[in-house]
Design brief:
Helix 9 crosses helix 17. Helix 14 (about 270-285) links the parallel strand 7 (about 260-265) and strand 8 (about 300-305). The protein is globular. The protein has helices at about 5-25, 30-45, 45-55, 60, 75, 80-90, 120-125, 160-165, 170-180, 180-190, 205-215, 235-240, 245-255, 270-285, 315-325, 355, 360-365, 365-370, 405-410, 440-445, 465-480, 485-495, 500-520, 525, 530-540, 540-545, and strands at about 65-70, 95, 105-110, 115, 140-145, 220-225, 260-265, 300-305, 350, 380-385, 395-400, 415-420, 425-430, 455-460. The protein is about 45% helix and about 10% strand.
C-alpha cells in the first residue's frame, strides 16, 4: 500500500524514528540514551523535545509483549481489577482505556494483538490455554429505525473484501458524486441536516463548507478512528467489518472540500481495525478507487492509515492532529479551528467514522430522503453501543426522536440503578431521566450529553465511591497535561476523595469540579466533572459512606 508523499516526508519520518527508538529500548536499556541522541539528530529536533514525546505515549514507554487489560468502565464493573491481579502473576500487564469490546467485558489484548474477552480472558489468567474461536466473536447488530443507514451493510454481511463491498453497492455513491460538482455534494450534505456523530453534534455541512472556502490549495481529511470513550465500540465494528464504507465516506468528503490527502487515524488498542483498514485502502488503490484518478474521474486522492501510540486524549481532534504530526498529543487552543488551520497548518476536516459512513446514503438516496429520518432538530439515525450489563448487548441503530427508555427496554433492563451515557465525559442518568428523546438539541437543553452513544448499565449494588475513584484515576492517567485545572485538579480531587470527613470532602470536590469545568482547555477537562458531580450527589451515601442520598 502506498502512502502520500507529503505524509511520508512530514509525519512518516518522525513516527518511524519513534518506533525505532521503542524497539531499541525494548531490546536493551543500556543504549537508549545514545539512541535518543541519534534519532533526535536524524529527526532534526532537540533531544528534550524527543524525550517529551516519548514520555507522552503509553506505547512508547511499554514493551509490545505486555498484556493490556481493559480498565474501561464496562470492564471495571465486570471485574477487570481482579482479572488484572490474576494476570499479573503470570504476565507483564498494563492498563488500557478502552479495548472497545464492552459488549463482552472484561477484555484483554495480548502481545500477539489478539483480544480475549469474558471466559477466554479468565482462562488465560488461570493458566488454562484459552480456546481461540475460529473467527472473531461477532457483535450483535440490530436496527429499530424504519431503515438502517449506518449498519445497513453489516446487517446483511461483513464487507471486508472489496468484491463483497462492491456487491453491496459501496463506491456507487462516490461514482455518482464524481459525476457532479463538489458544490453539489456540499449542498446535498448541508440540506440533509446531518450532524457529526463524534459527540458535539456540529452540522457536517457547515464544517465541510468552512474547509472548502478556506484559502489554500493543500487541504486534508482526517478520519478520527480514535474511539476511546469507555462504553463505545461502533467505530471499531465499522472499521473492522465495513472498512470500504469508511473509505467511501472519506473520499466523498475530500471531493467536496477539495482535499487531495486523507489520513485514517486509529487507536493502537484496535489492531484488527488497523489491519482491516490497511487492507481496504490497499485494495482500493489496486482497483483505481484511490490514487491519481479516483474511479477515472481525474480527481486525485492519497489515503494512509496512521495507528495511534496509546493516548485517550488523542480522540480530541486537535490533540490527534498533533499526534499525526509526530508531537505530543496535547490539545490546541481554538480558534483557529481545524477546518481553517488544522494538520500542518492547512485546512482540515476531522470527522469520526460513524459520521462518514452515513454520507453515502445521503448521496445515493438524496438529502430529502435522509432528512425524513429522525426529528427536525436531529436528522437521521444514531447507533448506540450497549455494554454487557444489558440482556441484549451490542449495537442498535435508532432514529433520532426515540426515547432513551425505549432503547433501554429493547436492550433489556436487568434491574440497573442507573446508566452512563457517552462515557466518562457524558452523563449519569437515573431511571426517571430515561424518558428524554434521543436528540442533540433536546438532550443539550436537559444538560444531557449524548456523546458517542455508548450506554453502560450500572447494576444495583455498585460501589459508587470506587466508581468515582476509577474515573478520577482515568482522568489523571489520560490528561494531556497541557492545562492546570485538568492535570492537577484531577489529582487533588483523587486525594480529597480518600479523606474521611464526608461533608468537608463533598464541599471541596464541588469546588474542584467547578474550577476544572470552567478552566480546562478542552472537553476532557470541561466535561468529566459533570458526571462525577452527578454521581457524587445522586449516590452520596455510597460515595461518602454517610448513608442516604442528597
Amino acid at each position: 500500500m502506498r502512502a502520500p508523499r507529503r505524509f511520508q516526508e512530514t509525519h512518516g519520518g518522525k513516527r518511524q524514528g519513534l518506533l525505532r527508538l521503542r524497539e531499541s529500548i525494548s531490546a536493551s536499556t543500556d543504549d537508549a540514551p545514545q539512541e535518543i541522541k541519534r534519532i533526535a539528530r536524524d529527526m532534526h529536533v532537540p533531544e528534550a523535545t524527543l524525550r517529551g514525546v516519548l514520555s507522552f505515549y503509553t506505547d512508547l514507554e511499554s514493551k509490545p509483549s505486555e498484556v493490556r487489560v481493559c480498565q474501561g468502565t464496562s470492564c471495571k464493573l465486570a471485574g477487570a481489577p481482579a482479572l488484572a491481579s490474576a494476570l499479573e502473576s503470570r504476565f507483564k500487564c498494563r492498563n488500557a482505556y478502552c479495548l472497545g469490546h464492552c459488549d463482552r467485558s472484561p477484555a484483554i489484548l495480548n502481545g500477539q494483538g489478539e483480544v480475549l474477552t469474558g471466559d477466554e480472558a479468565w482462562e488465560l489468567a488461570r493458566g488454562t490455554a484459552p480456546q481461540f474461536p475460529a473467527h472473531e466473536h461477532r457483535t450483535s447488530l440490530r436496527s429499530l429505525a424504519r431503515e438502517p443507514i449506518v449498519l445497513r451493510h453489516l446487517l446483511e454481511r461483513d464487507a471486508v473484501e472489496l468484491a463483497a463491498a462492491r456487491a453491496l453497492g459501496i463506491y456507487e455513491s462516490l461514482a455518482k458524486a464524481l459525476g457532479g460538482s463538489p458544490q453539489e455534494l456540499l449542498d446535498a450534505v448541508e440540506r440533509s441536516g446531518h450532524r457529526g456523530r463524534g459527540g458535539a453534534g456540529f452540522l457536517t455541512g457547515a464544517k465541510w463548507k468552512s474547509c472548502a472556502v478556506a484559502p489554500g490549495l493543500l487541504k486534508y481529511v482526517v478520519v478520527n478512528g480514535d474511539e476511546g470513550d469507555p462504553g463505545s465500540f461502533v467505530d471499531r465494528v465499522l472499521m473492522e467489518s465495513d472498512p470500504h464504507s469508511v473509505v467511501e465516506g472519506l473520499a466523498l468528503c475530500a471531493y467536496a472540500v477539495g482535499a487531495r490527502e486523507g489520513i485514517i487515524f486509529i487507536r493502537s488498542e484496535y489492531p484488527q481495525a488497523i489491519a482491516s483498514m490497511q487492507q481496504a485502502v490497499g485494495a482500493a488503490y489496486e482497483q483505481g478507487i484511490l490514487g491519481a484518478s479516483v474511479l477515472g474521474s481525474g480527481f486525485g486522492l492519497e489515503v494512509s492509515v496512521c495507528p495511534g501510540l496509546g493516548s485517550y486524549v488523542c480522540g480530541e481532534e486537535t490533540a490527534m492532529l498533533n499526534a499525526i504530526e509526530g508531537w505530543r498529543g496535547e490539545v490546541r487552543i481554538r480558534p483557529p479551528y481545524p477546518a481553517v488551520e488544522g494538520l500542518y497548518g492547512r485546512p482540515t476536516v476531522v470527522n469520526n467514522v460513524e459520521t462518514l459512513v452515513s454520507i453515502p446514503f445521503i448521496v445515493e438516496r438524496g438529502p430529502e430522503v435522509y432528512a425524513e429520518f429522525g426529528t427536525e432538530r436531529s436528522r437521521g439515525t444514531k447507533v448506540f453501543s450497549l455494554n454487557q450489563g444489558f440482556s441484549r448487548p451490542g449495537l442498535v441503530e435508532v432514529e433520532f426522536g426515540i426515547t432513551l427508555q425505549e432503547v433501554i427496554e429493547e436492550a433489556g433492563d436487568t434491574g440497573m440503578e442507573a446508566t452512563i451515557l457517552g462515557g466518562p465525559m457524558g452523563s449519569v442518568l437515573l431511571p426517571h431521566e430515561w424518558g428524554v428523546p434521543v436528540c442533540y438539541v433536546s438532550m443539550a437543553e436537559a444538560s444531557i450529553q449524548l456523546g458517542h452513544g455508548g450506554l453502560v448499565a450500572i447494576p444495583r449494588g455498585t460501589d459508587f465511591r470506587a466508581l468515582l475513584a476509577h474515573w478520577l484515576e482515568f482522568m489523571m492517567e489520560e490528561s494531556c497535561g497541557k492545562c492546570v485545572p485538568c492535570r492537577l485538579g484531577s489529582q487533588c480531587a483523587s486525594h480529597v476523595l480518600q479523606e474521611q470527613d464526608g461533608s468537608a470532602s463533598r464541599a471541596r470536590l464541588r469546588r474542584l469540579f467547578d474550577v476544572m469545568e470552567a478552566g480546562s482547555l478542552c472537553a476532557f477537562g470541561q466535561s468529566m466533572p459533570r458526571p462525577m458531580r452527578k454521581l457524587m450527589e445522586s449516590f452520596s451515601g455510597s460515595v461518602f459512606k454517610s448513608g442516604g442520598r442528597d
